[in-house]
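Per-record layout

source: Arenimonas maotaiensis
name: Acylaminoacyl-peptidase
length: 636
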Amino acid sequence: MNRLQNVSDPVFAPDGKHLAYSVETADAGRDVFSSDLWTVALDGTPPRRLTATPHSEWQPVYAPDGHALYFLSDAGEDGITQVWRMTLHGGGPALAVTRVPQGVDDYALSPDGRHLALIVRDAEYPDGKRPPNPKPFVSTRFQFMEDVTGYLDERRLHLYLLDLAGGEPVALTRGPYDHYLPAFSPDGTRIAYVSKRGKDPDRHSNWDLFMVEAVAGGAETQLTRYPGSDLDPYWETRPAWSPDGRRIAYVRSEAGQWIYYAPWQLAVLELDTGREYPPALADRFSIKPQWLPDSRHLAVLVEAPQAMHAVKVDVGSGKTTMLTRGGRYDYGLAVSRQGEVVVNGSTPLRPFELSRVRAGGRLTALTAHNAWLSALTLAPVEDIRFRSADGTEIDGLLLKPLDAVPGRRYPTILRLHGGPVYQFSREFMADWQAYAAAGFAVLAVNPRGSSGRGFEFAKAIYADWGNRDVQDVLAGVDHAVALGVADPQRLGVGGWSYGGILTNYVIAADARFQAAVSGAGATNTFASYGFDQYTREYEAELGTPWDNPDAYARVSRPFLQAGRIATPTLFQCAERDFNVPCLGAMQMYQALRSRGVPTQLVVYPGQYHGLSVPSYLVDRLQRHIDWYSRYLMPRN
């Protein structure tokens, strides 16, 4: 686990011959993750490390002349994130170019390299004087908490312009709104960004694209007016200006009532006419579009069942061409001014690495930061397909133990993914390999509610969690038993986030499981309302608890019917998680402890929804293996 390296943030140099990117690694001694910057050439020259600090450097952007690199780093003495600059050819140490007391959340570099667009949160203490004790939290906002950020008061994220020749950042946006994802126009005169407006932005998901002139006091213009969500910042996608400056590519979703069940679909805005339209890939989850040099074609990452691929789109005709194919999961994309395309992709036996896209979908590997895995024996991943109880076709993935023998059955762990609108894909999963090495088969099912198969499939569990998706995953277990792989007397189940929630539904519905692990799960939705960050989504999907108590009771079945659960269950949660707070795990643990069902509660101190301490990640996985081994492995 600690040797794995995570490659991300690929970006081309202006000459199109090199890329910069970041690599995150675990420092086991200090028990932290940190990231460094690397560069690699398209000609096959081995990658070269640019930074080697105990801090983190990420989100690189080349200066226009290609001789310097800007990036975000927490390397200052105060540990606050700033924009830094390093000269690439013997120019001395990297230096911070911003000194914002509260830090920089995001940035963009102007095409001429003279200005930075900065996203900065309003200062908590404008006078810079921090009292000995924190002041009380006070909020009148509808959404008053967010994972990682914490409690939300009246401070907002605003867009600033910084002249790199000197001076202080100048605010370009104001008001009770947040602003995200700045992107300069090709001529540098305008900045596109994303914001939510209206009487109470906390109550809706109607994000829109805006534009402001890149000068102090510049005029602001709203660019999109689609009633859904245009470029929700959660989607990790920036506004992409076409090289000729006439269009912006982005992704949008119907959102509203359908919240995260509606696909994030490719869209294009024509700035001359104001036309907003999806050029292709209807009903497909798409992210991170980038323009090719001709300003007519886009490269974009598009989900397919159990995969994500790079696709080329003609925005005029709607014609699409696959750039990558097969059993892989591409989650990063870089396009050069010369038309080269590089993807950051993973396969079942390899974590994310950079590859150059060749004609006909051929890929040439550029990096191999996890080549050491070649010395290990890893479990191959098999595709499976089967029918659920009502005849719906469901897909999934199956790993057998490393020493699997045909005709022999094995203890099997049913893994459930988060989301719920997400899917298991053909990517490297370290925990699956660890389970297989420990002697378990792993069954990963994509039930209804998953992405990858369009809107109707995703929204099949809308306001009805733990019904059709439970039927689907249990049908997957039946299929694994019928294949002769799963031992029906030694079945485990587990997941994190919605995977933990679905685990609770499964063990409340079916007594065949001998062990369960429910991580960051909750199933008393009455208690979750107002206690996590999803109140807006609860009201869209379920209404309010006082107006629709039956809906809340329906999705709270595992807690309200905890008397039916007999499966020994390990509950885990993160102490500072506002996404799925510990309340849910604690209540389920207390219910099983009250009834005398074998159970255990593990709370990871100071952690958010996604654990970020290396030793905690190792601890979590080891506890899974130990728990499943206790109840599923034969005793000597």
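summary: The first strand starts at residue 6 and ends at 12. Residues 377-632 form a domain with the Rossmann fold fold (CATH 3.40.50.1820).
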